[in-house]
Amino acid sequence: MNRFSGDRIRTLLATAAAAVLLLGGCAVNPATGQRQLALISEQQEIALGQQEAQNALAQFGRYDDAALQEYVAGVGRKLAAASERPELPWTFTVVDDPMVNAFALPGGPIFVTRGILAHFGSEAELASVLGHEIGHVTARHSVEQMSSAQLANLGLGVAMIASEGFRPYAGLAMQGMQLMFLKFSRDDESQSDELGLRYVTRTGYDPNQMPKMFATLDRISAAQGEGGRIPVWASTHPNPDRRAERTVERIAALPADQQTGTVDRDGYLRHVDGIVFGDDPRQGYFVGQRFYHPELAFRLDFPDGWKTINTRQYVAAIGPEKDAVIMLAMAKATTVAEATQAFFAGEGIERGPSWRQGFTNFRTVATQEQPNVVRGLIGFLEHGGRVYQLVGYTAEARWATHQPAMEAKLATFRAVTDRRHLEVSPKRVELVELPDRMTLATFNQRFPSTVDLGALAIVNGVEETATLERGTLIKRIGGGELPDS
Description:
The chain is of the alpha+beta class. The protein has 3 domains: about 35-145 and about 170-270, no CATH class; about 280-420, 3-Layer(aba) Sandwich (Protein Transport Mog1p, Chain A); about 430-480. About 45% of the residues lie in helices and about 20% in strands. It contains 16 helices and 21 strands. The chain has helices spanning about 5-25, 40-60, 65-80, 115-120, 125-140, 140-160, 170-200, 210-225, 230-235, 245-250, 265-270, 335-345, 400-410, 420, 440-445, 455-460; strands spanning about 25-30, 35, 90-95, 100-105, 110-115, 275, 285, 290-295, 300, 305-310, 315-320, 325-330, 350-355, 360-365, 375-385, 385-395, 415, 425-435, 440, 465-470, 475-480. The strands form 6 sheets. Strands 10-11-12-16-15-14-13 form a 7-stranded antiparallel sheet, sandwiched between helices. Helix 6 (about 140-160) runs antiparallel to helix 7. The longest helix has about 35 residues, at about 170-200. It starts with 5 loop residues before the first helix and ends in a 6-residue tail after the last strand.
């Protein structure tokens, strides 16, 4: 029997929680009017947000359009000035990512993707999503989540110290707390909707564009889900029950003079005219399982049936059973010799025999913390004044299965000189002022897009059967054709 009873453990947890609360305290949040657990100071919040903002920019990259950046930042600054925390160092940045998403970091950094901007239809819709993200910051949702996690982790630590019998169940307890925090996140979403509506009305925008914005995001999430892709907005913004209906109810409860306001459809559309739509092939694209990078002028093949992924940091493929990886990334070293030496100087890596010029077998050393041995093949090569790392790896027990495919595909790196594969361009939003009244289907026939009718309807915020009035500005998606081999 453990020398600590269940009552004793509960006492320890309560004591620990009380100590933490005495140190950090619960303060009243000026935006929500509610008492809030906050173990992180405002200065810590700001510092953390600014650090993570740099990581976000490194991962996604800033979208290269100074006029659009300033436009979005101007709308954001106006909303932030109307919030309860106007003194924060607010920043608003468009990142070069095709996914439809927006996110807020602690202390003021707000990011929207070019993907989400391409789908909005007015400045009021942009203000709605920016107001929502500002609400996450003013309500200190990230701070509250981190504070709750710290307190919960402290509780788990005390319980594990107090009772050896608790340790086997710690993983289950952590999973349970993650589910609990997901519920909090849904509550946070609802609260941010309410705060966003507050900032939208304070700055004179039409609040009725907020439920329209949510409807567009729901349509995008549904379309992405049907295509087997992760619905990014839904995955990062858990949908509260009756979100659109609740927003409509909140609008109906507003004073009459706040139930209307600025929409600015045409002005917004002219700002996003020409914005890149979808994946940008200049940053790499696939034709089947062959990857081309036109700006870096190389290609690499991946095995059939492997799932491919292209990011700013690497291009990779994952085996069908998710037990093997082939990856290409840019090395930090300036020479092949330096890169090779740095890799094998890493702790726990054994160097094996060479294979072909520039490639070497390797395996990891089993330890108590990492008993599973990984075996792979790594090579470094110079191309275009840069050093690249090519690696394939899997569990040692699976090496014989995957070795032939890894050797075959890692050897396919080639320079590309064919202009068909180098001179590619992305899809872009193009505005058309309708010369006549017509249906969306007729518009697509007269002004063809390189996306299907369903995607065209979503990007314009209308139904596929919609009839469009003469003189209306409508988006079409043009360009982006790629060579087929």
